[in-house]
Amino acid sequence: MWEAELSSDPIGMESALMRRLSAVPDHRSTCGLRHPLVVVLTLAACATLVVGCDSITAIWQWAAWTPQAVLERLGAYRDPFTSVFVVPSEKTFRRVLADLDADALDAAISGYVADVVRCEAPVPQIPDTPGPPEREQRRALQRQVTHPAPSGLLDANEQRERPGRVGTPASQPAPSSAEVTSRPSI
Prior knowledge:
The structure is a single chain. Helix content is 43%, strand content 2%. The protein is globular. A hairpin with a 6-residue loop joins strand 1 (77-78) and strand 2. It contains 8 helices and 2 strands; from the N terminus they run H-H-H-H-E-E-H-H-H-H. 18% of the residues are buried. The protein has helices spanning 16-21, 37-51, 56-64, 68-74, 90-98, 102-117, 135-146, 177-182; strands at residues 77-78, 85-86. Strands 1-2 form a two-stranded antiparallel ribbon.
């Protein structure tokens, strides 16, 4: 999403999304701080808004597939020993997003959307290439294999007649509301 806003010179033009997210205050201690808040928020925003990840684990799994060149442009933490840009851990995503000022994040995201609507920021271009199967999709496929539907159950998409009352054949129509209310009480 934010990549669509970058010109051919990523240093020359800053992403409108990252500019808005950088306004969110960081209340974390600077001691031992590895991942800048704007990197964590940008990865979470892209995973949530573009891909549709709806859990912290899914956000982390999506972020783990981010290429090194993209992490470099984001300003991600670079491991000094391996020279590899490191994605924040699931625990870091969970802790940072839990301690975040929700009103400031809401104002930043709303401001970004307003910038896009007012044509002050380019409309994000979402790539057509599908990413890796997300955790929920893998679970659904695994569930179909490990817990198949019992034989004899009707397919949910199969057309069938709607039965009337309990104990009546499906060919008989269901009683109208007037018939039900006109019966004498016993």
